[in-house]
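Thread amino acids onto this structure.
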């Protein structure tokens, strides 16, 4: 490993340890357990929707509305773009504050979003999922339209599998990050006590 990279990682770890020294760990531990529960449920049931589901759906639909003035493809893609951008922007804001527990929590939120995107994407040809529309009118399956427009409709399940694997890796990394921060907080309290 490059020495500069090692120094950067060590610096980040030290910054997180300093930040963790005056934080309370015990109320964050159940959040880690809840995210682990979400991860297990997603692995067991591709149609599982966590408590994030309503928030994700609201942001998804808002993306369509906000981009309704754009060409149709961008407006349709806007739902998925917005729902995935929300946790990314949140993580960036928490990183600036800083809140080093909230950053990997946003990763878990993004992972939950990606599981939902994978389910929706994998349904592009079958179009069996119940759909929601804001303002009424005929409901269009976003991923059927987008993949068909791109000539990728026959790859819907393969692409969904790639997104699902990405969601799994991101959730595992986020859980590890949240757990490490909680353990760091707990060890800091013990050292002070």
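Threaded sequence (193 positions):
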């Amino acid at each position: 490993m490059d020495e500069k990279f090692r120094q950067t990682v060590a610096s980040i770890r030290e910054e997180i340890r300093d930040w963790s020294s005056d934080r309370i760990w015990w109320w964050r531990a159940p959040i880690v357990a809840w995210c682990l529960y979400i991860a297990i449920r997603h692995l067991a049931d591709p149609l599982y929707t966590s408590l994030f589901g309503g928030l994700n759906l609201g942001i998804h639909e808002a993306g369509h509305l906000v981009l309704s003035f754009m060409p149709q493809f961008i407006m349709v893609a806007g739902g998925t773009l917005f729902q995935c951008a929300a946790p990314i922007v949140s993580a960036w804001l928490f990183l600036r504050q800083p809140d080093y527990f909230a950053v990997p929590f946003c990763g878990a939120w993004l992972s939950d979003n990606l599981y939902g995107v994978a389910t929706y994407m994998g349904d592009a040809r079958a179009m069996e999922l119940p759909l929601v529309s804001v303002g009424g009118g005929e409901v269009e399956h976003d991923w059927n339209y987008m993949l068909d427009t791109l000539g990728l409709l026959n790859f819907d399940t393969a692409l969904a599998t790639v997104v699902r694997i990405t969601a799994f890796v991101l959730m595992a990394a986020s859980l590890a990050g949240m757990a490490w921060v909680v353990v760091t907080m707990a060890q800091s309290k013990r050292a002070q006590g």
